[in-house]
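Format notes (please read before filing issues)

Several people have asked whether sequences and structure tokens are stored in separate files. They are not. Every record keeps both together, in the order shown below: the sequence lines, then the token lines. Line labels are part of the format and must not be stripped during preprocessing.
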Amino acid sequence: MNFSAADLDDSLPLARVRCRQRALLLRARGALVVAAAFFSALLACGPVMAQAFPFITAAPELPTLRRPLDVIARADAREQAVLVEVQRGVERLARTCTAPQKPAAPAPGREAALLQAQREANELRARLSDKNTRVSDIARAAVAARCNGFSFIPGIKSPECRSAEALRDASANVQKSITSYFGAIDSRYRLYMDVRDLEDRGCARPGFTQRLIQADDASMRPQEAAAQAAFDEFMRAADDVAAPLR
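Then the structure lines:
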């Protein structure tokens, strides 16, 4: 078959169009792979990874604190594991982005939902931290008042001294968990803001951030509600232990 110069002039633009379409398709597929990684991380990795993190539970003198402490430890481990996966996903999305630096119109209400979730988490962290600080103060004062200079000798400690020391140590562990757990949540929502910026640049399909938030609501929020209940359970049990030590 013979081609004229006119035929070549007509075919070159068509070839360029096909190449552009193929490049866009490949980029869209890449974005979908990243999206799948995000959603699978939120839905799967946390509960599995949480089993790998041991936690020192309360002393035998305080059995009512053992269950909430264990739940809190697993929740913290899950949040840390999910955060790692989301960080990897954001890094992949940014690394593979070839879109021009042209901002798109943000989806209405999307940023408000992110900021509201972040604000609620910060308010809860402040409330729990304040409660735990009061418990810790009572425990330290009770240790000073009820544990004498010979309390380090086995069999010498009074029950009140053992309870005060156990409450002090449990409260210190919970404060570490509060810092770690809510720090991971805050970092995860900051990463969602980064995803929002990447979407606005054209690095992900429109609505990607909103779907990510919906996946977060479906998979992480119920687990975070259970963690919040465990924190509240610990605070109630700690108050009961602290009452006779005041």
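For reference, the curators noted about this record: Residues 5-245 form one domain. Confidence is low (pLDDT under 50) at residues 1-12, 23-33, 46-60.
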